[in-house]
Amino acid sequence: MTEKFARHLGIVLGALYGLGFRLLWEVEALQSLGSLVTLSFMFLVPFVIGFIRIYCQCRVTPSLSYTKMITLAWQPIFVFLVVSVVTLLEGSICVAMALPAFMLCASLGGLAAGLCVRLMHRKKRGALFSIVVLPVIVAPLELHFLTSSATYVIEDSIDINAPATAVWRQLATVSTIESNELPTTFASLIGVPKPIAADMSGQGVGAVRTSHWQKQVQFNEVITSWVENQQMTYRFDIDPERIPDNALDKHVKLGGKYFAPLDGGYFIEVLDSKRSRLTLRTRVEDNTHFGLYSRLWGEVIFHDFHTSLLQLMKTRAQADVAEQQS
Fold it and tell me: Interior CA angle at 252 toward 247 and 253, to 5°?
């Protein structure tokens, strides 16, 4: 086997391994054997992909450097993810969230493969087989014995050169947001829709605030507390079936099986007669098994969302004051 053939073989087999699990666990009849939103798929599958890639090349190039073991293991990962996006198996949001974990675990798999080839000699094939079947063994155990649900709060604030009354006027109904009013953020770059408007069905507790986002995303916020010029809180009322499939990847769909904002609110603090501090708070439920990794991504996305909305409220409230003074 030539080095070029071994390289290509490792890339193809690694990518096919990842696609195989992606398709296998999409079959409803096999859901008891594994799932895409598991530690097994997020961390073990890319580990095996990297292992396969480097194992194939180390068979003909056992002196492969550790640096190459780490970086060459990414090749089948990129192929796997590109094919998943092109064939619409996955969307840009899931791919962006998975990529750092996939690259890290593939590198670890590549290092493990290189060490196995160097240290185990004739037992290489047994090592490869045991690694390849690892997700198949672990995934069912994870589904049946590991339950993980976490709730956390994301909070951001902004100081505004406007009195509380001017800030309050921006909260309930949000007129159409022009494209230049919201900055380009990391969340929007990976495909998260931007808000475009919000309207109220009334005022006070029990009223419904309807948020409209890009890609025809729409959901309700039922008002749970209403203290004029001080605070407006709400609980989310989201029907995931009403959110278009192409708007958000199904594994991170709002109100879906794995990820749901529960409640939130705006809070106004008076700093002085001409300045206020506006805080936006959201409580989120995370039902994935990814722990800290999932929470980090949730915080990145919601901090982006919060910051954009708070800046919008600041700009509009200050413009409102300036208009009244002119």
Answer: 50
What is the identity of the amino acid at 97? Answer: M
Q: Is 294 in contact with 100 (CB distance < 8 Å)?
A: no
Spatial CB neighbours of 305, under 8 Å, sequence gap ≥ 6? 185, 187, 192, 195
Contact 170, 160 (CB under 8 A): no
Pick the closest to residue 69 from 111, 123, 8, 13 (CA basis).
111
**Which two tokens mark 1?**
């086997």
Query: If we measure between CA atoms, which residue out of 263, 307, 306, 309 comes closest to residue 285?
Result: 263
- Asked whether the beta carbons of 276 and 250 are under 8 A apart, the reply is no
Between helix 74-86 and helix 3-24 the angle, nearest 10°, is: 50
* Per-residue tokens: 150: 């976490």
Supply the pTM of this predicted model. 0.84
Which stretch of DSSP H or E encloses residue 278? Answer: strand 275-286
Q: Which two tokens stand for residue 25?
A: 């666990």
pLDDT per residue, tens digit, the chain (326 aa), is 687 888 899 999 999 999 998 887 676 655 555 566 778 888 999 999 999 999 999 888 888 999 999 999 999 999 999 999 898 788 888 899 899 999 999 999 999 999 888 887 655 566 667 788 888 787 777 766 666 678 999 999 999 999 999 999 999 889 999 988 998 888 888 888 899 999 998 899 999 999 999 888 899 999 999 999 999 999 999 887 777 766 666 666 666 677 889 999 999 999 998 999 999 999 999 888 777 888 898 899 999 999 999 999 999 999 999 888 87
| Three-class DSSP category at 61 | coil
Q: Tokens for 155?
A: 């909070």
Rounded to whole angstroms, the Cα distance separating 53 from 77 reads: 10
Place of tokens 């990820």: 259
The CA dihedral of 196, 98, 148, 298, to the nearest 10 degrees, is -30
3-class secondary-structure state, position 176: coil
CA distance 23 to 30: 10
